[in-house]
Specification:
The chain is of the alpha+beta class. It contains two helices and five strands; from the N terminus they run αββαβββ.
Length: 97
């Protein structure tokens, strides 16, 4: 590997997903918890909360599902994060890109 910019090898796993729970974090909604920011799994549409949230359900979703890439579900934010490569990608990864 050269020292050029790191590439994520998981972008072809990204699909054109619709959020399963458009109103918030799936687990927080079920448990009556509060979240800070939301993240959308780009493989299955799971909506989870960020690591600043008490539940950290976005990260828990990665650990249980091994879906590598999620993107911000915040209005006005356009970025993706790969948990496997720990790589921040802006703008967000698009399906078929
Ligand atoms: Zn990756
Ligand atoms: Zn949550
Ligand atoms: Zn997922």
């Amino acid at each position: 590997m050269s020292s050029s910019a790191q590439r994520c090898s998981h972008v072809d796993q990204v699909r054109d997903v619709a959020p399963n729970t458009p109103n918030g974090c799936e687990e927080c909604l079920a448990l009556g918890m509060h979240w800070v920011h939301l993240r959308l799994c780009q493989e299955c549409g799971h909506v989870g909360c960020c690591d600043q949230s008490q539940g950290k359900h976005g990260t828990k979703h990665f650990h249980s599902s091994h879906h590598p890439i999620m993107k911000s579900f915040q209005p006005g934010e356009d970025w993706s994060w790969c948990y496997v490569d720990e790589l921040f990608m802006e703008p967000a990864v698009e399906p078929g890109a």
